[in-house]
Write a structure and sequence with these properties.
Number of strands: 19
Number of helices: 0
Shape: elongated
Distance between the termini: 21 Å
Helix content: under 10%
Radius of gyration: 19 Å
Strand content: 35-45%
């Protein structure tokens, strides 16, 4: 996988009502805008260098989610050895699959589809395995939601150095648009790229390079800093 086009995300669109400006006119916060070069920037949101976590959420069934919890449809990956279980109460005989600790670029990915609590109160993610070409691809079950073992695949902040290094074995593509369409260039493994801002696109994030092109902000494909 060398770009974000291999994973399909499902998300719910939240409509924000228009708010009046200083002149009493209404402006629609969901309207599309066009940049100076004519590129549409609809459904994009620039993210500040400091990540902002949402307030804790409570699901209809009463499940309390911590502010770091990944939202439904978000992709997460395992940083340490974990197991996929049949239910939220982790028992050895309920294991579906084992995911050993591996190098960053090979970390197993999952899409969060729901949440649950164990009998002891531990938060679990209900997930779908999206590791293409793997024997476990497509499997559904529960994994830990602990940040010690599972984190979001996409960066939520800018690199302090405003530079990223391409670590994907096949490199990454740069695109004209934030939805990763209209490929303009391919960057090989080890390339150092200057970024000027981060843009949120649906449930993923992108980095806009200093030349205006967009690349993925997937941690399996790029890493903060120059390496």
């Amino acid at each position: 996988m060398n770009d974000d086009t291999k994973i399909t995300f499902k998300y719910k669109k939240q409509v924000v009502p228009p708010t009046p400006n200083n002149n009493g006119n209404k402006t629609n916060n969901n309207s599309s805008s066009t940049s100076g070069n004519g590129n549409s920037v609809a459904n994009q949101e620039v993210i500040s260098s400091t990540p902002k976590f949402p307030e804790p959420r409570t699901l209809p069934d009463g499940t309390q989610l911590p502010n770091y919890a990944a939202t439904e449809g978000t992709v997460v990956y395992a940083t340490k050895k974990i197991y996929l279980y049949k239910n939220a109460n982790f028992k050895k005989d309920q294991r579906i699959a084992k995911y050993p600790k591996v190098k960053r670029i090979n970390r197993p990915m999952f899409v969060v589809t729901d949440y649950a609590r164990s009998n002891g109160g531990a938060l679990r993610y209900k997930v779908k395995d999206v590791n293409h070409h793997s024997k476990t691809a497509g499997k559904v079950g529960y994994i830990t939601a602990s940040r010690k073992f599972v984190v979001k695949v996409y960066y939520s902040s800018m690199p302090k150095s405003k530079k990223v290094t391409v670590i994907a074995k096949r490199g990454v593509n740069a695109y004209k648009n934030a939805n990763l369409t209209k490929k303009v260039k391919h960057h090989k493994t080890g390339s150092h790229l200057k970024v000027k801002k981060m843009v949120k696109h649906n449930l993923t994030t992108r980095y806009q390079l200093s030349n205006g092109d967009y690349i993925t902000a997937n941690k399996k494909l790029v890493i903060h800093g120059a390496y």
